[in-house]
Design goal:
There is one protein chain. The protein has 122 residues and is mainly alpha-helical. It has helices at 4-22, 24-30, 32-54, 58-80, 95-116. The protein is elongated and about 45 Å long. 29% of the residues are buried.
Length: 122
């Protein structure tokens, strides 16, 4: 198997981390909970990119899928009903957020390819 799916997952983590990190100040102005969520997302995504770069094992890939899925579900909640405690007000849908969710969804697909490949993950 080539390293392409792994590279796609690492890139998706890095892009999502960068976008979440850039949005921290704006979300901190809204509330400490929202800002804290964006800080946690940034740190988690950066750590996952490093983990996959250093040691791309099954646990890292499963963790990426869980984090990306959690971020996508969180966004759906934030734009439909609000996210309890962290972001109780309904957020408007915007292009940057949709782009970020598309990147994360692509990361899930690439991670799935990594998990299907035999003998490439320990």
């Amino acid at each position: 198997m080539t390293a392409v799916p792994r590279d796609v997952v690492i890139l998706a983590c890095a892009i999502s981390a960068g976008i979440h990190g850039a949005l921290v100040p704006e979300h901190l102005e809204e509330s400490a909970g929202a800002g804290g969520g964006f800080i946690a997302s940034t740190v988690l995504l950066a750590a996952l990119a490093i983990w996959l770069t250093m040691r791309p094992d099954r646990a890292a890939v499963v963790s990426v899928v869980a984090v990306f899925a959690g971020l996508i579900v969180s966004y759906v909640l934030a734009t439909t009903t609000g996210f309890p405690v962290l972001h109780p007000d309904v957020e408007a849908v915007d292009g940057l957020a949709l782009f970020t969710k598309a990147i994360e969804a692509g990361g899930i697909v690439a991670a799935g390819l990594m998990l299907q490949a035999k003998g490439t993950l320990t």
